[in-house]
Write a sequence for this structure.
């Protein structure tokens, strides 16, 4: 059975667990870095990126998560998770995990008042996907290796680079599990190739 | 086509705050301390509840200058309080772009009967509640998030515990009822029937429920999380303590790792004095903020 961990320091981690389980994998909440050894893929959920980052530092998660990714194990970042995965953050020198070759802008669509939901097409994953954007970031630019999966109003809101997946919206807040299922498949694939 | 202010967008905002600490602040400097400590949001106020209590008189929405100063100082969400039933204060805060409005019994109510019809707003609202009747009425008025009322500004956790236990126990009771018994439960609690049916089915409230009103130490925060809170508001507890930055960090960690008692013990060491606190029996009934609305 494929086991997917959801970083459970702060944010909407229980919704992700529900979504992972609905997609046929086992979901576990990851609160300690030692738990990374027991999972095949990791989701970094939405929440407050500054709060999550502080707790990542406090519990020495930064290097172990980077190492996890460098072993070829898939990581999926949603909203705050996308910010944490990025290699460049607009207006900030403080890069977090820096695993994905993307440049992000925080709170890019505005404050809560401007938060919205909209239907998107996610390339190769889902058409007419209802995406919930909450004080969301967007991706301003991607490297050559990164594939753009979705745009909203011209801005990149979902991307994939090898075994890294990121989106600005919250797939865990709806009953549509297609994007999480896509990630579960990525993890199953990587399990097979890492076992060889 | 995109839509703002939907139920999903407003409730979802509160979902993102789960497992976090929302801190009361009165200026930019405090807001930065809170953000630095890992707060998930700040509540911009003119005075913390303990000082509102001490000052007496009518407590109103904060001066917009303070709210704006806090909004400019931090990148985390900023909440602000409007008086219960004060439609105009709420609209002003919405127009300023605050991320969440607390229709709060900490301020002097503008309307002793009616709450704001919150589903008319694009901005989400949080409201206090003591039981399932208050909780479901606030949700049906459009609140996207709830919190226990507790007894604000006292540094005494006893009322927040009472309110959290009350709601949890009422949810369990509701689940034990047969379908044909729910209507009487609805009548007795003044609770919307269809919402009760939904809660009975899910075994939980349809919105996030934080603890608030009296949290003064890391162990208080951990206690409330143990009792089923989704996160905590800390009002006077942080900036009325001796060492706010350290207190703020310790409360954030205790909220994340609420069942790791060894850790909570460690981070409670040498924190200095918590806020002084008040015994409930010293409050007369008109000093009890929790009784200001139903």
């Amino acid at each position: 059975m494929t086991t997917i961990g959801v970083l459970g320091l702060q944010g909407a981690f229980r919704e992700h667990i529900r979504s992972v389980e609905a997609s046929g994998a086992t979901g576990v909440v990851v609160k300690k870095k030692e738990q990374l050894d027991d999972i095949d893929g990791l989701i970094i959920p939405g929440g407050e990126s500054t709060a999550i980052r502080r707790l990542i530092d406090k519990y020495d998660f930064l290097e172990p998560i980077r190492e996890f990714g460098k072993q070829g194990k898939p990581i999926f970042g949603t909203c705050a998770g996308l910010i944490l995965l990025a290699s460049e953050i607009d207006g900030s020198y403080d890069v977090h995990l820096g695993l994905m070759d993307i440049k992000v802008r925080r709170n890019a669509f505005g404050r809560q008042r401007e938060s919205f939901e909209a239907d998107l097409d996610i390339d190769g994953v889902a058409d007419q996907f209802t995406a919930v954007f909450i004080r969301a970031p967007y991706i301003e630019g991607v490297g050559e290796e990164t594939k753009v999966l979705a745009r909203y109003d011209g801005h990149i809101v979902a991307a994939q680079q090898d075994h890294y997946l990121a989106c600005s919206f919250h797939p865990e807040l709806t009953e549509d599990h297609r994007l999480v299922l896509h990630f579960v498949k990525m993890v199953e694939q990587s399990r097979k190739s890492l076992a060889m | 086509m995109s839509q703002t202010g939907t139920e999903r967008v407003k409730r979802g905002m509160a979902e993102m705050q789960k497992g976090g600490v929302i801190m009361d602040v009165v200026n930019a400097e405090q807001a930065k301390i809170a953000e630095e400590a890992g707060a998930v949001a700040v509540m911009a106020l003119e005075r913390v509840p303990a000082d509102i209590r001490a000052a007496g008189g009518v407590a109103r929405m904060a001066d917009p200058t303070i709210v704006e100063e806090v909004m400019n100082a931090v990148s985390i969400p900023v909440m602000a309080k409007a008086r219960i039933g004060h439609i105009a204060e709420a609209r002003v805060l919405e127009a300023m772009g605050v991320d969440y409005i607390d229709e709060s019994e900490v301020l002097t109510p503008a309307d002793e009967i009616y709450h704001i019809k919150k589903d008319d707003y694009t901005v989400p609202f949080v409201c206090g509640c003591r039981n399932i009747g208050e909780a479901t009425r606030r949700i049906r008025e459009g609140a996207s998030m709830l919190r226990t009322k507790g007894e604000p500004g006292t540094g005494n956790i006893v009322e927040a515990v009472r309110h959290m236990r009350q709601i949890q126990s009422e949810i369990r009771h509701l689940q034990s009822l047969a379908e044909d018994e729910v209507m009487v439960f609805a009548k007795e609690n003044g609770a919307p029937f269809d919402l009760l049916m939904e809660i009975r089915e899910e075994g939980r409230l349809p919105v996030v429920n934080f603890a608030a009103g009296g949290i003064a130490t890391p162990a208080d925060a951990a206690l409330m999380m143990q009792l089923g809170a989704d996160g905590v508001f800390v009002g006077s507890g942080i900036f009325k303590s001796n060492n706010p930055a350290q207190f703020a960090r310790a409360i954030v960690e205790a909220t994340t790792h609420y069942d790791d008692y060894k850790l909570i013990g460690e981070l409670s060491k040498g924190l200095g004095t918590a806020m002084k606190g008040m015994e409930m029996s010293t409050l007369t009934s008109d000093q009890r903020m929790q009784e200001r609305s139903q």
Summary: The first helix of chain B runs from residue 7 to 15. Chain B has 13 helices and nine strands.
